[in-house]
Amino acid sequence: MMSPSALPRFFSVISERLLECGDEVRRVFHGRGRCYEGLEQITADWLGQGVLQIAVFKEDEPAFYDALESQAIAFTESEVWKKVGGKTIAIQHRDREGAETETLVGEMPQQINVIENGLSYKLDLGKRQNNGLFLDMRLGRKWVQEHAQGKRVLNLFAYTCGFSVAAVEGGAEKVVNLDMAKSSLSRGRENHQLNEHDLSKVSFLGHELFKSWGKVKKLGPYDLVIIDPPSFQKGSFVLTKDYAKILRRLPELVTEGGDVLACVNAPDVLPSFLTEQMAELAPEFIFESRLENPPEFEDIDTDSALKVLHFRHQAK
């Protein structure tokens, strides 16, 4: 259980970080990294436009919720809240069926356009657990934007095409997005349109990956492949079993000298899972570096946090 007595620390950290956000979407408290005793199951995200979204991941005692609500309301009287133009505070109950959202202060919009690294993304609020943008991948998207110039990019498990938006903004020649959820790809198309991108450079494939290798290969080869799968997707993907099927295919998909960004966001899967499997299944790909995670996602154990590893296809 979390501790009501730890909540002043929660709002103190939020106060410090809100002043650094400007209009950009940003995680402003990350208890899930276990760096704040008594606050391990709570996070807070600043969405810009005056909206602060708190998420609770595990059901707690009524006393904790009472203290959270009263201190959130008191926080709206602070100079920081007024300075950043705060309007809305809501709690998303990630532990409850449907991830219901409770608005404490102001009005919670159903959709909002947020800005990250100067790019716009449309998010859905209060409808489902994931709103359309994973904020811990902020530096990954920035890396892609900085390394996409003139490249053909394959974005696997594309979701709402955040990597694709970053790649096109960075000057990619072509991006192929693949995800079995066509609704997510539709949102990806909207995200590109928000940024006034040329959609002739972007393909959206609403297919299950392991049944679509022929189509994916036909549109290649690629200079950059991004692999950012779910840890588990019922009936289609189990990370510890199925990642290997992708790695085996990389030599026929990636140009010599090309790059692979391989991601894992399962706390119990170590970085060595990727480096060892790559060495075994696609030894032509040399490990270059692990990307840093955003500092606001501090974690007591870096191996449990998001892992984004860069590999390069070694020229023969």
UniProtKB/TrEMBL annotation:
<dbReference type="GO" id="GO:0006364">
    <property type="term" value="P:rRNA processing"/>
</dbReference>
<dbReference type="InterPro" id="IPR029063">
    <property type="entry name" value="SAM-dependent_MTases_sf"/>
</dbReference>
<keyword id="KW-0489">Methyltransferase</keyword>
<keyword id="KW-0698">rRNA processing</keyword>
<dbReference type="Pfam" id="PF10672">
    <property type="entry name" value="Methyltrans_SAM"/>
</dbReference>
<dbReference type="InterPro" id="IPR019614">
    <property type="entry name" value="SAM-dep_methyl-trfase"/>
</dbReference>
<protein>
    <submittedName>
        <fullName>Methyltransferase</fullName>
    </submittedName>
</protein>
<dbReference type="GO" id="GO:0008168">
    <property type="term" value="F:methyltransferase activity"/>
</dbReference>
<keyword id="KW-0949">S-adenosyl-L-methionine</keyword>
<feature type="domain" description="S-adenosylmethionine-dependent methyltransferase">
    <location>
        <begin position="26"/>
        <end position="312"/>
    </location>
</feature>
<dbReference type="GO" id="GO:0032259">
    <property type="term" value="P:methylation"/>
</dbReference>
<keyword id="KW-0808">Transferase</keyword>
